[in-house]
Design goal:
Layout lengths: L3 E8 L12 H15 L3 E8 L6 H7 L6 E4 L2 E3 L2 H10 L12 H7 L2 H10 L6 H22 L11 H21 L8 H11 L2 H6 L3 H12 L25
Parallel strand pairs: 1-2
Antiparallel strand pairs: 1-3, 3-4
Helix pairs in contact: 1-3, 1-7, 5-6, 5-7, 6-8, 7-10
GO molecular function, one term: chloride channel activity
Family: Belongs to the chloride channel CLIC family.
Keywords: Membrane, Transmembrane, Transmembrane helix
């Protein structure tokens, strides 16, 4: 049996430069590769790169290109879309993750855009108006999951869509609370059950950044302010599920 050796470089934390950073694409592809490594179709080596102080050999090979970077048998793939296509077409077992489901693809697109628009807006007297697009989108995902009745978006096994959605849900869970005191309503029981299923998976746990790194990432990306001294805090990983309401 010939094992394919894959190296995956992901962005390091902007706080300590060592642990995993909160780049969404890094986590998405890490999850996909982790699932394939669990199935023993590949051997995976993951390295974090501190882009504030990249090592000399990184600069020599990749100049200023930030991760994610996938290296397969000596060939480096640098662009997000090319990495995804490479996993689908060239990494053993990868094609199994990439299912076709137009309804799911449409359902999850633009969710993160709505989140960014919400946290960017300064609190208006009517905060419910600002959060409505995000809330409505989360409700749509909740209703879809309730109707499908499967563990994951396209069935009872994970697909590329779960690797895309769950890191974004985690950013929304942590970021919307940190910047807007918004919490995903407990009445979205199907959505929370879905997240609970994801929290049980090593692919998610191993790839998940600390809450502080998510907050730092969103703060830097959107130019937001926060009073919390997250740089000094011990890293926390929020994966507990709240008590769900039946209403």
């Amino acid at each position: 049996l010939i094992i394919t050796y894959i190296s995956f470089l992901l962005q390091a934390s902007t706080i300590d430069g060592r642990r995993k950073g909160a780049c969404l694409f890094c986590q998405e592809y890490f999850m996909e590769l982790y699932l394939l490594a669990e199935l023993k179709t590949i051997s995976l080596k993951v390295t974090t790169v501190d882009m504030q102080k990249p090592p000399p050999d990184f600069r020599t090979n990749f100049e200023a290109t930030p991760p994610p970077i996938l290296i397969d048998r000596g060939m480096a793939i640098l662009e997000n879309e090319k990495i995804e296509r490479h996993i689908m077409k060239n990494v053993p077992g990868g094609h199994n993750l990439f299912v076709q489901d137009k309804e799911v693809a449409t359902l999850i697109e633009n969710l993160y855009t709505k989140f960014k628009m919400y946290v960017r807006k300064f609190e208006s007297p009517d905060t419910s108006e600002c959060r409505q697009p995000l809330l409505s989108h989360l409700e749509r995902i909740n209703d879809f999951l309730a109707k499908r009745g499967t563990r994951f978006l396209t069935g009872d096994t994970m697909s590329c869509f779960d690797c895309e959605l769950m890191p974004r849900l985690q950013h929304i869970r942590i970021g919307a609370k940190a910047f807007r005191k918004f919490e995903i309503p407990t009445r979205f029981t199907a959505l929370w059950t879905y997240m609970a299923n994801m929290y049980e998976l090593e692919a998610f746990i191993q790839s998940c950044p600390a809450d502080q790194d998510i907050i730092s990432h969103i703060k830097n990306q959107l130019g937001l302010r926060t009073t919390a001294r997250i740089e000094l805090e011990t890293p926390v990983y929020t994966t507990a599920i709240p008590v769900l309401s039946e209403s």
